[in-house]
Amino acid sequence: MLWFILGIVLFALGICLSVALHEAGHMWAAKAFGMKVRRYFIGFGPTIFSFRRGETEYGVKWIPLGGFCDIAGMTALDEVTPEESKRAMWRFKTWKRTVVMSAGSAMHFILGFIILYLMAITMGLPNPEAQAAPTQPVINATSCARTATTMEQLNDTSCPADAPTPAKTAGIQAGDRIVSVAGKPTPNWTDVLAAVQVAGGPTPFVVERGGQRLNLTVDVPRVQRLVADGENKTTVKDVGMIGASPVPKTLVATYGPVDAVGATVSFTGTMFSETAKRLIEFPSRIPAVVESIFGGERDPNTPVSVVGASRIGGEAAERGLWEIFVLLLASLNFFIGVFNLLPLLPLDGGHIAVVWYERVRDWFRKLRGKAAGGPVDYTKLSAVTMVLVFIGGAVTLLTVTADIVNPVKLFQ
């Protein structure tokens, strides 16, 4: 329980750091272009403390659920003093305003990349290609090891670890690659299992060892074992077995400081692809969230809130699965970064869309010999903004509620 609570706290702190860096990204970019940043605060509600450095007030508030960076004149409707007027954000060039508004998401991407890079040189990164690839027919052990890699091993309680298995008796050794069984080629371990299960008695095996092929004969016994048969079903069958297990796939690989850069770039691309997929599927998964609140089974692929993500982080820490903890934190940063760039107000992406609408509109006006149209009147967009804020609030409330009453769990 202690590690569970510690994991939740650490994950929440990680999210707070992400938010702080998001707002810092806006602030640093705005200051670099000469815009005036009035305030930079972490959290909402009453102020815990604040201090002023130069023209900017920095501080922390009691509710650590966000933060803000107050840049003078973010829109033409914002009130500015005469001294701030020349440095109002809306007066700057389109590309500079775009950089400032996208800098928050950029910080999430940078943070996510750094997390993955550190993971690559310490814990290692998952290898999606290895996960998808079939297990190779290379022998790892020819004893009754307690590590269950097949349904037969999982249900075998009578075989001592040092017992002479049929494979070992026939001369099969660790490191051998099984080329064929009973004349049937076995390019992967699934083929080996299929061929062995239908075999019985003396069976010819061809194995590759040290660059040479050897012909061996394995006396395959027939035994009754619980075998997977279709979706979520098992059946007791009379099958052949030889008492051998394959070399497990390398699902995670660590890298040196230089090689880790390329590996991290590649895995970051995978993360972006998965993030885009989750965003596309997001609306269709909301009904499942609602159903889970009223007692339905919680689909682990349904959206989770910050509460749910922190809980999963706590469960990962409790079980010592720090790789999952760190990977989840990186994934959350990529998701927030991409989500924030959606062209919807009041997200940063919505403000960027308005800025570029002004730019394209003025370009067409110039072609027709007309003057620039001036800043967009945000009051005309307030109704749409309020609808999107309401929808966003409703989704947040639903996911938080589901994460409290029926949370997603790593282990059911």
Descriptive account of the structure:
The chain is an alpha+beta fold and 412 residues long. It is built from 12 helices and 12 strands. The chain has helices spanning 2-33, 82-85, 94-121, 128-132, 151-155, 166-170, 189-197, 259-293, 306-318, 322-339, 348-367, 382-405, and strands at 37-53, 56-71, 125-126, 139-141, 177-181, 184-185, 201-209, 212-220, 222-228, 234-240, 245-246, 252-253. Strands 6-5-7-8 form a 4-stranded antiparallel beta sheet. Strands 1-2 form a two-stranded antiparallel ribbon. A two-stranded antiparallel ribbon has the order 3-12. Helix 3 (94-121) runs antiparallel to helix 10 (322-339), helix 8 (259-293) packs across helix 10 (322-339) and helix 9 packs antiparallel against helix 10 (322-339). The longest helix has 35 residues, at 259-293. Residues 145-158 have low confidence and may be disordered.
